[in-house]
Amino acid sequence: MALLEVKELKAYYKTEMYGISRIVRAIDEVSLDLQPNEIYGVAGESSCGKTTLIKVLSGTIKPPLKIYEGSVNYQFKHGNVDMAKVSNEELQKNVRWKEISYVMQGSMSVLNPVRKIIKTFEDIISTHEGISNHKEFVERIKDHVKKLGLPPDVLYSYPHELSGGMRQRVAIAMATVFHPSLIIADEPTTALDVVVQRGVLQLLKEIQAESKNTVLLVTHDMAVHANVADRVGIMYAGRLMEEAPSEIIFKRPRHPYTRHLISSLPVIGDKSGKSSLEGTPPNLANPPEGCRFHPRCPVAEEACKTKVPAMRDLGGGHRAACHLIQGAQQ
Ligand SMILES: Nc1ncnc2c1ncn2[C@@H]1O[C@H](COP(=O)(O)OP(=O)(O)OP(=O)(O)O)[C@@H](O)[C@H]1O
Ligand SMILES: [Mg+2]
Q: Atom 14 of ligand 1 has which residue's CA nearest to it?
């Protein structure tokens, strides 16, 4: 049974300026599911809607963002939750931190700059569970951070005293304190150098392997997905273009956009120049007709300019939305 089923989701930003309304179609007709015990990677270049998708999936939907159509259904241990309908009270009481935790783009947002780390843990635990015995609470948090390989001293530091990698580990420690069913991480390693990045990703992988929960990992960095994700979904201009288990998507990408993303990955010893795509991603307030990728697609045909390609099942958990893909094999 899936942990999450997203069906035909449309989530748009509607803004008004000088009486003119503008709709940014950041998520358009996206369907996907998340299974228990998997790391699902979402990839795609800047502004394709990755963070917007996460806002909807984590229930942090605030104007001007709104769900226009579709459903976002979770099956948690304590019951089902539809993000399109759930109340804020229910989210606060039973869902946030306990079932879904969210490591945001830039870890400073969860860490209060004027409070020591232990105080932020205290804030989270006291609002969700209450703290009856302070000494036990401190021991519990020390144990928790130690299990994640962090020195307990970090608890008595202010966020600015820690390195970027350490702050990100602390944010992950906070996200896992209640053992949620889903951990969502938005570009968790983008600001870190490669060595520190590896450590943070390793930590996420170890936590997932131990608690067998679901991790939704969002990053534009395909090399990270190749190392960490079990399945990968490729987004372009608010739409899901392709999805497959990682070993399949990296070996046999089918969508021209995915092929471009994968061919631009560096290969050791390869000195040939990497191809870059012509043009820029479309404006989501006025996206192109037909396939949104067609103006930049090296193989686009007439139909691509007018007809939105449907997501086709290619077998073995592989799906892609492209008019030029024929049949299940190629
Ligand atoms: N508050 C907002 N109001 C209006 N439009 C917004 C708002 N936030 C984001 N958008 C627009 O929605 C689209 C998707 O943005 P989003 O932040 O989801 O992209 P992203 O894939 O996470 O990009 P990045 O890789 O840069 O983090 C973009 O066109 C962006 O300009
Ligand atoms: Mg983002």
A: 49
Rounded Cα distance, 320 and 5, in Å: 18
Domain map of the chain by residue range?
4-266+282-313
Q: Is 56 in the pocket of ligand 1 (CB under 6 A)?
A: no
**Domain 4-266+282-313 is found in CATH 3.40.50.300:** yes
CA of 301 to the centre of ligand 2 (A): 31
Q: Is the full-model pTM beyond 0.90?
A: yes
Q: Is the CB of residue 92 below 6 angstroms from any atom belonging to ligand 1?
A: no
What is the residue whose two structure tokens read 């205290």?
122
Cα 41 to Cα 225: distance, rounded to the nearest angstrom:
6
CA–CA distance, 243 with 203 (Å, rounded to integer): 25
Residuewise pLDDT in 10s, the chain (330 residues): 999 999 999 999 999 889 999 999 999 999 999 999 999 999 999 999 999 999 999 999 999 999 999 999 999 988 999 999 999 999 998 999 999 999 887 656 678 889 999 999 999 999 888 899 999 999 999 999 998 889 999 999 999 999 888 998 999 999 999 999 999 999 988 878 888 888 889 999 999 999 999 999 999 999 999 999 999 999 999 999 999 999 999 999 999 999 999 987 776 666 665 667 888 899 999 999 999 999 999 999 999 999 999 999 999 999 999 999 975 544
Contacts of 55 by beta carbon, 8 Å cutoff, 6+ apart: 11, 61, 62, 65
